[in-house]
Structure formats: structure tokens, C-alpha cells
Write a structure and sequence with these properties.
Number of strands: 4
Strand order of the largest sheet: 1-2-3-4
Low-confidence stretches: none
Mean pLDDT: 78
Radius of gyration: 19 Å
Helix content: 55-70%
Order of helices and strands: HHHHHHEEEEH
Structural class: alpha+beta
Largest sheet: 4 strands, antiparallel
Distance between the termini: 79 Å
Amino acid sequence: MRWTLRIAAILAVLLIAYAIWPVVGLFRIASAIEARDAATLNKLVDFRALRKNLTKQIVAAYIELTGKEKKLGLLGKGLAVGIGTSYAEPLVAQLLNEQTLMDLLTKGEGGGGIKVPPEFAPFSSSAVKSGWQTWWASEYGLGDYYVSLPPDKAPDKQFKVKLSLTDLKWKLSGIDLPEPMKVELAQQLVQQRATEKE
């Protein structure tokens, strides 16, 4: 009986530690962003995965915006997103250096005039002030942690932030953008493509 209680206690401690660990990683990222510490942020962001995540979203929104989704169908859309990433990469590159990423996450402003209201920025001071609200807005996966920020906003105004466990560190590896921001980025891609054709 004593062994059963000890094992149950150890498992409970491990479960609690696993539940808290990614939240600590999230607040470490938030602290680096708030302090505008680019060197620390660089260590806590998986830029390759984040670039891929953002590029897919922008290309998918571009395909919808231009009406090509109906022509391609579901399978064709998946292929087009894979092929079309090269068109969106310059736009994503504007968002993904330490400075513009910090501005996007704290002020809701990205490179090229992309904006959301500052109160909707995922790492604004008001967005992560409540650890309990942040934890409540999170989802756990095996090696992945998702949180919708700011937690007190409507789902269509939230960024869904993804942290992945890499080398025993939780790193920012994805940000699902709010729909208005995806559309704005897709419109910029349409303008960029039109300029290239001229």
C-alpha cells in the first residue's frame, strides 16, 4: 500500500511538473520580448519552423483571396501551398527578424505596415499578465504546447502560439495569425505578385 501511494505521488508530481513546464517556457519568451532581449529571444525561437508556419498560412490565404481555391480543390490547394511558399518567403522574411518579431508580438505591428490593434498583440503586457487565464487558454500535445493569446479576446482576434519541445527547451515554433492579419498579408502578396508581372 505504501509503494502504491509513493508511486501515485511521484506520478502526480511529474504530471504537475509537465503541466507547468511549458507555461514557464512561455513566460520566459514573454520576458525576453518585454525586455527586448534579442539574444535570448533568438535562443527561444525556432525560426525555421516559425517561417514555415507563417508562410503556409499566408499562401493558403492568398489562394483563398485570389479565388484559386475553388479551381484547385483540396489536394491541389495542399500542393499549391507547398509550391507557393517561395512567393511568400520575402514577405515572411520581413516579419522574422528579432526586431520585427518583437514588434509583431508586443505591438501587433509587423514589417511592411501589417497591423492589428495593440491590445490584440499576443505578448503585450496585458495579454500574459494572468498566468491562470493563460494556462486556461492552453492545450497540451506530446512535445507541443498551444496557447491562444490574448486569452480574454474573441477567438477570431487571437494568435494561437505554438511552443515545441526542442533539446529540452520550449521554443516558439508557430503562430497562427488572426484572420484579418492573414488577409492583409495575402493582399500584400497579391500586390507583390502584380508588381513582379509588370
